[in-house]
Design goal:
Blueprint: H1 10-24, E1 32-38, E2 41-46, H2 56-66, E3 69-73, H3 77-83, H4 85-98, H5 102-112, E4 119-125, E5 130-135, H6 138-142, H7 147-156, E6 159-164, H8 171-181, H9 183-200, H10 205-209, E7 215-221, E8 230-235, E9 239-242, E10 271-273, H11 279-282, H12 285-288, E11 301-303, H13 305-321, H14 331-337, E12 338-340, E13 346-350, E14 353-359, E15 367-373, E16 378-382, E17 408-414, H15 426-443, E18 446-450, H16 456-469, E19 479-481, H17 485-494, H18 501-510, E20 520-522, H19 527-535, E21 540-544, H20 554-561, E22 568-571, H21 580-585, E23 590-595, E24 598-603, E25 607-610, H22 620-631, E26 638-646, H23 650-663, E27 668-670, E28 677-679
Parallel strand pairs: 2-3, 5-6, 9-10, 10-11, 11-12, 16-17, 17-26, 18-21, 18-22, 19-20, 19-21, 22-25, 26-27
Antiparallel strand pairs: 1-2, 4-5, 7-8, 7-28, 8-9, 13-14, 14-15, 15-16, 23-24
Helix pairs in contact: 1-2, 3-4, 5-7, 13-14, 13-17, 15-16, 22-23
The structure holds zinc ion (2 copies).
Length: 681
């Protein structure tokens, strides 16, 4: 067994790394007064933050060596004052001597940062010594090789944190940013992060005894079905929940994952990890945090930053629409617990598990999650929902999945389109959508496109922009956006670094003009505006929620426009069994839907089309290519022994599982049912 700097308790650990830290960062010169662990982060408290500017590279090297994030703060003086008023006062004097007052610092910042950065907001946080800078072009604020950032630190003594100012105004993003500035929230998070730090930095059983651990996955939901995804990953030292979703089309009894089983104890869960924001992967969180049992989950929820924002939006929407009788926590309870992690950043989440996210290409912020267990003992990855489209010529919203796992023994894979014939082309889909819009234009009809708030809507919006830019559809056809789609689109434009290069460049070039306001018109859930759109004569495209016709404005559009044979209903996304969307797709033409609180029957006479190819899920050929590409790295750390297939209808799961058996050299291909546990090693 190799020696490791970790030993014994978290306190021992802090002591051992403090020696290492002080050997690189001189305590006296840098005025360091304390070190502490928060989650997987080491926080250095200093009275002279500005002096750290000269040690920027050293801090980076140190972070790499310790495999920890290192942040600098000024100490919380209020807290110190409670124990020692005199010391707090002395600290305050030194801090103030070492940094400029906010008004002066603001001037200096504006001198350092070039005009083109488009600074919109500068906020000073005295408690932590940080200055938040919001700008249209954060990259320009940071500067090449972080030069501007370092300069701000050096010349003002404030620790800069730089955020992107959303190109399309997004109330949700502001709400979330403000939420985290709340002192009460900060308090809750500080306590949580301390607990995590002390938990993850104890030496694992495996390290102490030299015994091997074991790794198991328990299927709690989303196996042999689509919906309520939930996996429990357990080792000797860890219990990690991956996703916790609901089945939107199911009866209340079958909506939730199988949480009422002896193996599942909420108070024993160390971490919840979310692959992406869709409700079939996240919807049950509200229930978990509602205090439905004696215990409430008080641990961390790990996800990417865009996933957090989209999740908040989707849950707010869900709560406002849902009528299910189960207790629900406020989405803020989730925000309180979220720890965001970028793609490619490796983080300790339990004593024996290290986690890394990789782009999954499914929706904004979607991730494949890789778990490195027991210092090189075993590696398992969950694909989550993913897309592996490397063929399309028409530019897409997101880059394809990037499974750059350094090592891998087991893979848990989705199979929504695992059937033999489940293949379609994105290019064909965009062209077919163009045909449909042109047909509607000729007939002066309206095209209704039900789409999920997140994912397909933005894909379709960009596809329509592409069709317009290339003069493939008439320029004078208005595009109406209803439901929360516009807000979700605004969130997309706030995270250009997560999008494909094509879309990213558009956002950098055009900013808020990316969707021409005279063409793309936000109805914004406004009923009067909606009725105007409906009664307006002439052709139009309407993109609206919900994607599977479970509710939302699309039902009103169907009620008013569904009887006119000049109109066209276009399905662009997956329609799950049990949903109204699936029933219509399967031929139902007389439907009963709630309109103004009353169940109303409508005879559909409009055209109904399905456009395959927009899906954010990997088609059969993409699933195969994904596995073949992974397997081609056999000598490069990828040693697939176990493949577990889930997230699909049983026949599709069986079909792709058979293909894996024949084409990939693995020991076991498994297709468990819910409630089964698979031991990986
Ligand atoms: Zn999804
Ligand atoms: Zn899913």
């Amino acid at each position: 067994m190799s020696m490791n700097i970790r030993a014994g308790t978290a306190r021992d650990y802090l002591e051992s790394i403090s020696k290492e830290i002080y050997s690189v960062l001189p305590k006296d010169i840098l005025n360091i007064v304390d070190l502490d662990l928060f989650g997987a982060e080491v926080v250095i408290y200093t009275l002279s933050p500005g002096k750290f500017a000269d040690y920027y590279d050293k801090i980076r090297e140190l972070a790499k060596k310790l495999k920890k994030r290192i942040t600098i703060r000024t100490p919380n003086l209020e807290e110190i004052a409670r124990k020692n008023a005199e010391e707090a006062k002395r600290f305050e004097e030194i801090i103030n001597k070492n940094r400029r007052p906010p008004s002066e610092a603001e001037k200096v910042i504006k001198e350092i940062i070039p005009e083109e950065a488009g600074i919109k907001k500068i906020v000073f946080d005295k408690t932590s010594g940080r200055v938040y800078i919001e700008a249209v072009k954060p990259g320009v604020v940071i500067g090449k090789g972080h030069t501007n950032k370092i300069k701000i630190l050096k010349e003002t003594g404030w620790i800069p944190e730089i955020k992107r100012y959303p190109p399309i105004p997004s109330p949700i993003i502001w709400e979330i940013r403000e939420f985290y500035m709340d002192r009460g929230v900060d308090d809750f998070r500080t306590k949580m992060l301390k607990r995590i730090a002390y938990k993850i930095n104890i030496q694992s059983t495996w390290m102490i005894t030299g015994q091997k651990t074991w790794v198991r996955i328990t299927a709690l939901g989303g196996y042999q079905e689509v919906g309520r995804n939930c996996h429990l990953l357990t080792t000797k030292d860890s219990r990690v929940l991956v996703d916790c979703g609901i089945s939107l089309g199911a009866s209340p009894r079958d909506m939730f994952p199988e949480l009422k089983i002896p193996e599942f104890n909420l108070e024993e869960i160390d971490a919840i990890v979310l692959t992406h924001a869709h409700l079939d992967h996240t919807g049950a969180l509200l229930y978990l945090l509602s205090g439905y049992s004696e215990h409430k989950y008080d641990g961390p929820i790990y996800c990417t930053e865009p996933t957090r924002d989209l999740l908040y939006l989707l849950l707010e929407d869900y709560i406002s629409l849902s009528r299910d009788p189960f207790p629900q926590a406020r989405p803020e309870e989730i925000l309180k617990r979220v720890i965001t992690v970028d793609y490619g950043t490796t983080l300790d989440i339990t004593p024996d598990i290290r986690m890394t996210f990789y782009n999954a290409g499914h929706i904004l912020g979607s991730a494949m999650v890789h778990f490195h267990i027991g210092e090189g003992f075993y590696n398992v990855a969950f694909t989550g929902d993913f897309k592996y489209d490397k063929k399309s010529r028409i530019p897409r919203l997101l880059p394809p999945a990037d499974p750059a796992f350094p090592r891998l023994e087991a893979l848990v894979m989705e199979a929504t389109y695992g059937g033999k014939r489940d293949t379609a082309s994105f290019d064909d889909a965009v062209n077919k959508l163009g045909d449909i819009i042109r047909t509607a234009y000729r007939k002066r009809g309206k095209v209704i496109i039900p789409a999920f708030v997140v994912g397909r809507s933005q894909d379709v919006m960009f596809a329509i922009r592409y069709l317009r830019d290339n003069k493939l559809i008439p320029e004078d056809i208005p595009i109406y956006i209803d439901g929360s789609i516009w807000e979700a689109t605004a969130i997309h434009t706030s995270y250009p670094e997560y999008l494909s290069k094509y879309v990213r460049d558009l956002i950098y070039e055009e900013g808020e003009k990316i969707f021409d306001k005279d063409v793309f018109i936000n109805v914004g859930k406004d009923k009067n505006k909606r009725l105007d759109v409906i009664s307006e004569s002439g052709p139009a495209v309407i993109i609206t929620t919900s994607g599977m016709l479970n509710g939302g404005p699309v039902l009103e559009y169907l009620y008013y426009l569904g009887r006119d044979e000049n109109n066209i209903l276009v399905f662009v996304g997956y329609q799950a069994e049990g949903t109204l969307g699936r029933r219509i797709q399967d031929g139902a033409r007389t439907i009963t839907i709630p309109i103004d609180g009353k169940l109303t029957t409508v005879d559909l006479r409009l055209d109904i089309e399905t456009v395959e190819g927009f899906s954010g899920h990997a088609y059969r050929d993409q699933l195969e290519n994904f596995l073949l590409d992974l397997n081609a790295r056999r000598n490069l750390g990828i040693k697939l022994q176990n493949v577990i297939v889930h997230h699909g209808e049983p026949k599709k799961i069986e079909s792709i599982a058979k293909w894996v058996e024949r084409n990939i050299r693995v020991k076991n291909v498994r297709t468990p049912d819910n409630l089964e546990t698979v031991r990986l090693i």
